Amino acid sequence: MKINQECAVALIAVLLGLLAGALLMVLAGNNPFQGYLYLLQGGLMNAERIGNTLATATPLILTGLSVAFAFKTGLFNIGAAGQMLIGGLAATAVGLTLDLPKLILLPLVVLAATLGGAIWGLVPGFLKARFNVHEVVATIMMNWIAYWTVYYIIPGYFKGAYLETESRKILDAASLKVDWLTNLFNGSYINLGFFLAIIAVWVIAFLLNRTVSGYELKAVGFNRHASEYAGINAERNIILSMMLAGALAGLGGAVFYVGYASNMQIGVMPTQGFDGIAVSLLGLNSPWGVLASALFFGMLHSGKGFMNAMTRIPPEIADTIIATIIYFSAAAVLIERLWEKVIKGKKESVNALEINQDETNERIGGAR
Amino acid sequence: MDYVVEMLHIRKEFPGIVANDDITLQIKPGEIHALLGENGAGKSTLMSILFGLYRPDRGSIKIHGREVNVSNPNIANDLGIGMVHQHFKLVHNFTVTENIILGMEPKRGLMVQLKAAAARIKDLSERYGLNVEPDAKIEDISVGMQQRVEILKMLYRNAEVLIFDEPTSVLTPQEVQELMKIMGNLISEGKSIILITHKLKEIKAIADRCTIIRRGKLIGTVEVGATTEAQMAEMMIGRTITFRVAKEKREPGPVILKVQNLTVRNNRRTIGLRDFSIEASAGEIVGIAGVEGNGQTELVEAITGLRKAESGQIYLKGTDITNLPIRDRISSGMAYIPEDRHKHGLILDYSVEENLVLKSYYQEPYSKKALLNRESIRQHAAKVMAEFDVRAGRAGESSARSLSGGNQQKAIVAREIDLNPELLIAVQPTRGLDVGAIEYIHKRLVEQRDKGKAVLLVSLELDEILNLSDRIAVINNGELVGIVDAAATNENEIGLMMAGVKRGEHR
Predict the structure, then answer these.
(1) What number is the ipTM of this complex?
(2) Which residues of chain A lie closer than 8 angstroms to B86, CB-CB?
(3) With an 8 Å Cβ cutoff, are A215 and B354 in contact?
């Protein structure tokens, strides 16, 4: 029941965001119905556009998953961007260095990206576990280390044919793009990364809910003291959690740089890293929720160009809608209250058995 | 007869349960009226209704004979109803004055009139004998003093009726005495007090009348002077209570726990426990008596592995466990009911069933090959919850947070005893619980002893120590004052030892 209510709140946030977007379109002198129609068409009109929506969503699924997984284990991974960069760099480096058949090279490329991300998560995890350095600070630092590492390595070792600021294009053998998939979706950007992302979602959901390790990870996240009391090695779990979060974002780097794109540019912090936080928030920090919200964001992102082309609505409107949705999901408490008042009437939804002393006190204190 | 507060025929239903069923509570001016009931009996709901947090389904509230509609806490404040919470609501790095005026700062232009407020607070403090320094910072004053700040907050807002929610649960015995004096001052200045508590002794000591509720129903209102503690307890529980736990004499078996010259540092990195030695044998309960903060925490945490031992040895069944990881200590037969059930005892965001396997989740049958077996975790919860009478709204699926304090504690006791340990360490196992739950937990502890387990009981309640223990070790200032036979001692002797007077010295 609680889950349903949370879902409803997320959907209401989306709806309110869309309404706010409509309002903006009206204010700018456009027809919002037309705008949304084109936005939708731009994202889903034909196989190619559906493919592009999925391709745009793919890195978001993975960075969202990275943030959500860290959240579930009590950590705030704000370093998905840096982990993505390092993942992408590792993938590009392996892809441009080794000359192997695709069947062997591609798994190596993916593995390198995942490992790179994991190492980028390991450092803040270790600092947190050992020295209690806050992971937000550490991961932001790691973002910039990744940024400048890419800035140094790409022009130094993998310089492109014409431009100083980007790497050579990777060969087909190292790319997640495969012909049959590209053809199936009429030449879209979709690539094998999408399937990797779906598998990752399933793996993380399974890990969190069904395994002994997931039980420990969440326990440490919820209450480190009680976990230590129960004999769980909290330090190890914090490090493991950050490593896995980093690995997911690193994989996100692979699907972006050697899937969606085919080379790496320097001087760009990938926005998907930070969008992952929004995806996770809207997806209620649950793996399947992340999948849904990433697909939705993917649709908005890939549909906005078409909307812009067909109407005079600027593409920034789509970004504004996303931003508004994030605001509304962050203000979920307000929506929950509204929900309780409007949908359930005046009946209190509180189960008396479930009120414990502290909570009652909190309420009294809060209300005062 | 005039009443200050009348709550008449209050009924409040929540989905699936009647929290208050036709409850009438009438407070006379200038009386201390105790509200007695088990955890989950409906006391909090009733007070929340008076405070404007819930609307009653039926019934009415009258203040000074006038019917009122308390729809939110601000109205309650305006009506002169104030609440002193169990967990204080204070900003730690603010001064007393700043805390008290928070939310209703006296202003002139943009300036807060701190001086004027401080003067008024000093005035109030003197009038009621509270002895609070208006310029002290909250983090620098004792818990008892913080509570008085909460009281002052209410007085500053001109409260006439003060609700005290379990006020003594956080206080030392001396502070309890002082609080009772303060309550007396409040009454003589014309205030009325509603005292929510489980502690019959306190009711007997200061309350004028007592209203007892059980499972949402009004059992009755009695004159405290004409009622015995046993009668009140029976009204609250619905059956007779034995205050003394039946305990047969037993010969202790082999030594299970042996602590030798243990020295441990406290959180301030100074020595918190010095050169401490103690033994606990199979089939005996060893009580550790002492005033809070005299090294009990350091002792227990060093034994359980949460804290490093500076020097000395700890043996469990003859094996040196001084530097073993926590999990190894658990698996070699140590169970631990911690003092702070929210910090250490439970993962509040986990369900009850998940909490019940907190120490065994990685073993069969709860998991196999790194996968959890939800089914067997559920069955285990059902079995244990029935056996230990842990009540929860949605059985094992309820979140631990949603349980009442008593049921949370029972769940911890259940989990620890279910480990079938050789050594059971229980720290303040009945803190904040009602008589029924206390009796139950005491029985379980004695049962462990009778099964031939060693029990180490740390408690601040002298009664509890004296009732349960076979031997009592008294701790003061981090050092062992002495060990006495429980049968051959009394409250007086232990009390003196707790103050650091060695046995024999006072004769």
Answers:
(1) 0.82
(2) 357, 361
(3) yes
Paired residues of B220 in beta bridges: B212
Closest chain B residue to the Cα of A73, Cα to Cα: B349
Question: How far, in Å, CA of A197 to CA of A180, rounded?
Answer: 19
CA distance A169 to chain B (A): 42
Q: How far apart are CA A89 and CA B479, in angstroms?
A: 60
Of B17, B336, B349, the CB nearest to A353: B17
Tell me the pLDDT tens digit for each residue of B239-256.
776 666 667 777 888 999
pLDDT single digits (tens) B135-181 = 999 888 887 888 899 999 999 988 999 999 888 876 777 788 889 99
Q: Would an 8 Å CB–CB cutoff place B482 in contact with chain A?
A: no
Q: Is the dihedral of CA B445, B446, B451, B452 positive or negative?
A: positive
Q: What is the dihedral of CA B434, B437, B443, B445, to 10 degrees?
A: -90
- The CA-to-CA distance between both ends of chain B, in Å, stands at 55
Residue B461 backbone zone (phi > 0: left; psi -120 to 50: alpha; other: beta): beta
> B277 — phi, psi (to 5°)?
-130, 135
Write out pLDDT tens, residues B47-77. Answer: 989 988 888 999 999 999 899 998 888 899 8
- pLDDT tens digit string along B258-278? 999 999 998 878 899 999 999
Q: How far is B224 from chain A (nearest CA, A)?
A: 26
What's the average model confidence in pLDDT over A124-136?
95
In chain A, whose CA is at the least distance from the CA of B150? A365
Residue B140 Cα distances to A343, B93, B170, B291, angstroms: 48, 9, 17, 20
Contacts of B349 in chain A (CB under 8 A): 222-223
Average pLDDT of the residues of chain B: 89
Asked if B53 lies within 8 A of A365 by C-beta distance, the reply is no
Q: Which of A210, A219, A226 sits opposite B372 (nearest CB)?
A: A210
Say yes or no for a CB contact (<8 Å) between B350 and A363: no
* Residue A358: predicted pLDDT: 40
Sign, Cα dihedral of A6, A7, A10, A16:
negative
User: Percentage of chain B with pLDDT > 70?
Assistant: 97
pLDDT band for position B1 (cuts 50, 70, 90)? low
Kindly state the percentage of chain A with pLDDT values over 90.
Answer: 62
B417: its two tokens: 């005893």
Q: Is residue A93 within 8 Å of A198, Cβ to Cβ? A: no
Tell me the pTM.
0.77
Query: How many helices (DSSP H) and strands (DSSP E) are in chain A?
Result: 16, 0
User: Going by DSSP bridges, is the β-strand pair B423-427/B454-459 parallel, antiparallel, or unpaired?
Assistant: parallel
Average pLDDT over residues A207-219: 96
B:158-197 residues touching chain A, CB 8 A cutoff: 165
In the sheet that B319-320 helps form, which strands lie side by side, from edge to edge? Answer: B271-281, B255-265, B309-316, B319-320
